[in-house]
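Pasting as-is:
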Amino acid sequence: MDATSATSLTGTWQGQYSYPAGQSPEFFTATLLERPGLLGGSIQETLRHGKLAGRTFYASVHGKREGSSVNFLKTYETPPRQHSVQYQGIVNADGTEIEGSWTIPGALSGRFLMIRASGLAQAALHEAAAPV
């Protein structure tokens, strides 16, 4: 077993996906849970560009991991976005980044990058979510 497959992907990730033709990227937060070989979780993104700018969308994540290869399907659950996007990527050696491509079959494709949220960033998220 290599170091990458020994590092669980469970946790919070900050990500971005880019469109073709130089459009500005969109950003998201993913919460992943990895069980042996299986990957699940959720994604939240607030769009910054286009006719849906300012809207927040939620999606579920279902997929798998084999060594450093990660494949998952992101399925939007918030109208008017109710389609799926296929992601295929590679985890870096220390398990802190996933980089690859996304595809909406027959429509669009582009690149994505996910970076594991640091302990400091996670502490800020917990503090922001704590009741006052």
